[in-house]
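User: My advisor, Dr. K., asked me to get a structural model of this assembly before our group meeting. I'm new to this, so sorry if the format is off. These are the inputs:
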Amino acid sequence: MIQIECPFCGKRDQSEFSYGREGQITFPALNADENSWYDAVFLRKNTYGRQIETWQHTHGCRSWLLVERDTVTHKIFSVKLAHTDWQKQIKKTT
Amino acid sequence: MALQVTRFSAWNVLKNGFIGQSGWSRQWRDPEPKSKYDIVIVGGGLHGLATAYYLAKNFNLKNIAVVEKGWIGGGNAGRNTTIVRSNYMLKGNREFYEHSLKLWENLSHDLNYNVMFSQSSHITLYHTPSALDSAARRYNIMRQTGSDAEIWSRTKLEKKIPHLNYAKNARFPIYGSLVQKRAGTARHDAVAWGYARAADKLGVDIIQKCEVTAIDRKGQKINSLQTNRGKISAKKIALAVAGNTSRLWHLANLGNLPIESHKLQAFVTEPLKPLLDQVVVFGVGGAHFYISQSDKGGLVFGGDIDWYKSYAQRGNLPIVQDVAESAISLMPCLGRVKLLRHWSGIVDMSMDGSFFMCKTPIDNLYLNAGWNYGGFKASPASGWYFADLIANDRPSEIIKNHDLERFKRGHYIDESGAGPDTKLHG
Ligand SMILES: Cc1cc2nc3c(=O)[nH]c(=O)nc-3n(C[C@H](O)[C@H](O)[C@H](O)COP(=O)(O)OP(=O)(O)OC[C@H]3O[C@@H](n4cnc5c(N)ncnc54)[C@H](O)[C@@H]3O)c2cc1C
Ligand SMILES: [Zn+2]
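Assistant: The format is fine. Below is the predicted structure of the whole assembly, which you can bring to the meeting.
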């Protein structure tokens, strides 16, 4: 079974996590044109091999992670928090 | 060069019984690839082979090749759980799948090859009165498209399928079911071989161990395909590579697609005496499970996709556990049956769970993809309409909304209403 090393919780079975999407996707501004929203919502690179993707530790600390994984061998190269700038983000919104 | 293929008939079976089965010929040729074809179909799965057959048969076209990187039927064609049904609800899908079912009904005769299509009924179980109401809505829509549908009560089910779990204290007691009697299963390998043999007979070159490794594109046109068996040029090129669609798309430098590759597992048990006549589907409370019994006696079943993107043709344990749990809760009598094999295939999951059969940004490239976990049943109609698209260079009315641009138009064909997340359409 795939195991993912959560930065908070340590190495856990894949069944504790849910797969999100390709990590390079960033959502455009709300008033961006329809084409950039179309790209972000509907189109996928669908890489054969090494890719960065998001996973959520749903049945653990619930953080979103950026995982670098080979989609053919399932080997994982790195795991880090997706929102490293969360403190900055919170300041911005409050 | 044409090969004399012995026809299958009662007479030939009898005759060969007397001559030690020595009168059978090779079933199809093994030609070297030519350097030029009118039409090259990439992918020797069911859809590629069926397309070649109908191009030759319905449009009398010659000079066609199917190129397959492995062996025909080695992809999802030979890995699926072989369920054939037409209980779709949305416009476009329902006419398409009903046409497919009609083609299945005569396929063995048409191909002169026994595909062992057995219309043993497809039973979708429901567990609450409201779920059965929504099944009745689907029933009405199916009947309007000319498909058959019945609602069976729990009492009738108990008589017809005695081994299901009818316990009153089951976590999800069975309440009733939607039944399609014309649905059932077929032998997947036979479908691949039958189409290959029939297409070959009409002059199609079926070229195995021939992988497309590069695409020579000049602006709006593809000139040739680079393969491990040399360069092949073609006037028209058609992709039918299921889980590998994005890879070919990138080879042609066409950017991203509304498709993600996921893996779907299937399971078969040791052979048993006849236990289950129908295909039974159980889907409630997060479970998703379908089961039938093969002619050899093994119980064939499957569940959800593995929930994360993957090109590995092997499954992961959480789904093995999920599927085993569903099996036991639906048919407790399976508790001590041994699992014989399990495997997985790479399915081309689309953003709305429906397929793509369309022209592309390249003038002479045609796309057949996005079959999710359900393209086996589609094979005959897929070949039929894809051949029509390639031959006439325009989609027929039925599939005109199954194009790549539909999301831009807001025209989703989303049977389950799950939204634009491929894994939710499993
Ligand atoms: C476990 C499982 C269970 C399923 N159960 C059902 C079911 O019960 N009912 C149902 O309707 N559907 C089911 N499906 C779906 C169905 O099997 C597929 O949708 C269908 O087989 C896909 O079409 P195909 O047969 O043409 O694909 P494939 O057989 O996968 O054909 C594609 C071919 O393209 C070839 N190819 C790829 N790249 C290249 C290249 N570069 N050059 C040359 N060739 C290439 C591959 O080798 C492959 O043979 C299931 C699928 C799986 C995996
Ligand atoms: Zn965690």
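One thing worth pointing out at the meeting: The interface with chain A takes residues 246-247, 255-261, 307-312, 316-318, 351, 407-408, 420-423 of chain B (CB under 8 Å).

User: Perfect, thanks a lot.
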